[in-house]
Amino acid sequence: MTDTTSNAGLQAMIARAGQITAEEAEALDVTWKADEGILLPEPSASLAIQGGADGRMVTNADLVATWQHALEAAGAAGRVEEIEAAQEAGRAVRHSDAHLRDRAGAEEAVRSAVLATGVRDLVSDDEFATLTAAWRKVLGEV
């Protein structure tokens, strides 16, 4: 990371991610998944014969593109610590006391907010707002 303020801020976000409650994790999960625009394939006889559906599809192309841009910008700028901080934040949610069956949305929401905060100087205001929206809605300002 480029300075100690940024490091301290990301460390605080990781610590907060590790302390989320079940209710907060659920809210993050629901918010993130709603933002993803998940589309599940319609059940049909032909899908059943073929072994079932191939999973969910994220239809919010802007969210996917924004995440990809932030990740690529971080990589191109050599910001490995910021990428690792985002991964650590996702693990913190997984190991928190919030016992949920499916925390994928909560983990993604936290990872995206930490990455966006770490590379704030590399993303636009709109991209930052997109990637931190779930965190800000559920946990407050980043």
Q: Stretches where pLDDT falls below 50 for ≥5 residues?
A: 1-5
What is the CA-atom radius of gyration, in angstroms? 16 Å
The beta-strand count equals: 2
Q: Which overall shape is indicated by the principal axes computed on the Cα atoms?
A: globular
Strand order of the largest sheet: 1-2
The percent range for strand residues is under 5%
Question: Would you tell me the structural class of the helices and strands?
Answer: mainly alpha
Largest sheet: 2 strands, antiparallel
Can you tell me about this structure?
The protein has 142 residues and is mainly alpha-helical. The chain is 67% helix and 3% strand. The protein contains seven helices and two strands; from the N terminus they run ααβαβαααα. Strands 1-2 form a two-stranded antiparallel sheet. It starts with a helix and ends with a helix. The N terminus is likely disordered.
Q: Any key phrases for this structure?
A:
disordered N terminus, 142 residues, 2 strands, mainly alpha, two-stranded antiparallel ribbon, 7 helices
Briefly summarize what is shown.
The protein has 142 residues and is mainly alpha-helical. It is 67% helix and 3% strand.
What order do the helices and strands come in, and which of them pair?
Layout: H1 4-17, H2 22-36, E1 38-39, H3 45-49, E2 57-58, H4 61-76, H5 80-94, H6 104-118, H7 125-139
Antiparallel strand pairs: 1-2
Helix pairs in contact: 1-5, 1-6, 2-6, 2-7, 5-6, 6-7
